[in-house]
Design goal:
It comes from Leeuwenhoekiella palythoae. This protein has 190 residues and is α+β, with helices and mostly antiparallel strands. The chain is built from 5 helices and 10 strands; from the N terminus they run E-E-E-H-E-H-E-H-E-H-E-E-E-H-E.
Amino acid sequence: MARTPSNMLPLGTQAPFFTLPNPLTNKHVTLTDVAGERGTVVMFICNHCPFVKHVNDEVVRIANDYRVLGFGFVAISSNDVENYPEDSPWLMRETARKYNFSFPYLYDETQQTAKDYDAACTPDFYLFDAELKLIYRGQLDDSRPGNGIPVNGRDLREALDNVFNNRQQNELQKPSLGCGIKWKQDANPS
C-alpha cells in the first residue's frame, strides 16, 4: 500500500471553481452548489483505496454533524478509471449508497480539478472559509489502516470547530497520507 502525503496547497488560496458530474444523480454540480454559509470541505477520495475505506464512516459522521451548522461538503474522485476500473462512476454510485453519503460524490474525468487543487492522495481534505479561502488542508486525524489509532476525525473536526467558534486555526497542519492519485498517462502533473 503506497503512502503518498498531501501537497499542502498554500493557506489563503481561493477555492478553484469546478463543475463536475454526480454519477448518483446524473446532474452536474458546481463549487457554488456545495458551498456552505460558514465554510466548505472539499475531499478527494476514491472507491478502492484502503486509507479512504478506513475513514469513510467518520467522514460521513463529520458531514452529518457539521452540515447542520452551515458547512458544505463535497467528495471528488479523480482516479484514472481505465487502469483502476474499481473507481468507475458506476461503482462511485455504489460507494455513495453503501456509506450513505449526505454530500455529492463527483467524478473528475479529466483530472483537471485534482490538478487545480494540487491534490496528491486519497483521502485529501481541504477546508475553505465562507469566502472560499483555504484555511485548513491535510489529514482527517492520526489514524491509518493498521496503526491502532482510532478514527475520530480530530484534525478536521478541530478546524471546523475553530471556524464555528471564530477561533484561529492551528498553524500546525499535518498532511494527509494515503494512496496517490492514479493519474492518466498524459495527465500526471509531476
